[in-house]
Each structure stands twice: as structure tokens, then as C-alpha cells.
Amino acid sequence: MVKTTSIIFMSVSLILSVVFPIVLALLLHRRIRFAWVSVIVGVSIFVVFQILTRIPLLVYLSKNAWYVEFSEQYYLLFGFLLALSAGLFEEIGRYIGFKVFLKNHLIWEDGIGYGIGHGGLESLFIGTAFLNEFVISVMINSKKVLPGDAQTIASTLINTPSYQFLLGGIERIFALAIQMGLSLVVLYAVKNNKFLFFVLAILLHTIIDFVGIMLVKNVWLAEIFVGLSTIASFVWILKSRNCFKANSIQM
């Protein structure tokens, strides 16, 4: 049986993943009046560069024996390359989004809008995993027959500590703030023709993902790191508004 607290925390994480980005978008739009097109472009870029490109590529590679062997034998290098691929795909996508599709919307407010679109869809996408876990858990507790692919994760759902299901939802909030911060870094690069800020965004994205991968077996250390990254992102989000107005950063 899956613990009741685990199912409750799955529900909370599902709500945080699906409802929170939508509510945040509505509240921030009311407050700072970003253009909705920036959100749409953020959503579209994530679809193209992650859901339709990077993720299918990784799934295809994972079916090859050499890829699996490489991931097991060279775990550190594999983890770095995996993180780098996320940094490259997403930040190049962001750059194209601002440079091509939002060239008339290069203000701080639209950077926030883009980040909500990009990070919000990521949260919704990952939220499907919480939904699957919730449905399977209910089926387990109802003693219903599970489909073959669900049986493989049944023991994991039963044996995982309840709090970890809640941490998944909290992490989505953290990730959304980080995505918004990275969006503003790339926006600043495009708006002021500072290519080094684009490189910085790739580097920051890669580091955050790589450390997260390396700490995957230590949940608390991983969450502390992501939490610190979120605080840094939040500070940058607030401070950067004046930077966009004054163009005060030099590099």
C-alpha cells in the first residue's frame, strides 16, 4: 500500500506544478503588464527545443547499448554532457526567441513573461509525472490490476519516503524562479549585444543541472543547492530591473 501522506503530497505537488505557474502568470501580468506574446514565445521555444528536439533525442540515444555503457562507466562526464545539452538547447532557444520573435519586446517585464512561459510549461510537463504517480498509487491502494509499465514503479511508490513527493512540487517552484532568472540573463545579452551574457546563461544552466545530477542520491543536499540557486535567481530578478533601465552592467 502507498502511504496516505504520500498520496496527499503527490496531490500537492501536482497542484504546485500545474496551478501555481498559471496563477503566477495572471498575478504578475496584472502587476507588471508584460506582453502575453512573451509568454507564448516562451512556451513555444520550450516545446520546440525540449519536448520536440532534446527529449526525443535523449530517448533515442538511451536505446543504444553504447550510450547506456557510457553513462555507467563515465558517470561524471555523462552527467556533465547531459547538463550541457540542457544548457545549450534551452539557452539557444531563448536567444532565438528574444532575437527573432520578441525583438520588439526586449524589456524586463517581457523577460519575466518569457520566463513564466518557458518555466511554466516545463512545470506542467513534469507535472504529468506527478499525475501518473497519483493515479498508480490510487490503483495500488484500490487493489486494481496495474498495466505492465506501471508495475515497475509500484515498489518505488510504496517505499519512497512521503516527504520526497512534496519536495518534487517545491522544486518546481524553485525551477520556475531559476528559469525566469536565466531568461533575463539572455534577454540582457540580446538587448545590449553582450554575447558573454549569453555564454554566462549556458554556463549557469549547465552548472545548476550538473550539480543537481551529481546530488540526485542525496535529496536534502540537492534541495539545499537548488534553494540557494533560487535565492540567487530571485535577487537577480529584482536587481536586474534597474539594470535594464540604466544599462549599468558592463562586460
TrEMBL record:
InterPro entries: YhfC
Keywords: Membrane, Transmembrane, Transmembrane helix
Residue ranges of the TM segments: 6-27, 34-53, 73-90, 173-190, 195-213, 219-238
Pfam families: YhfC
Protein name stated in the entry: Hypothetical membrane protein
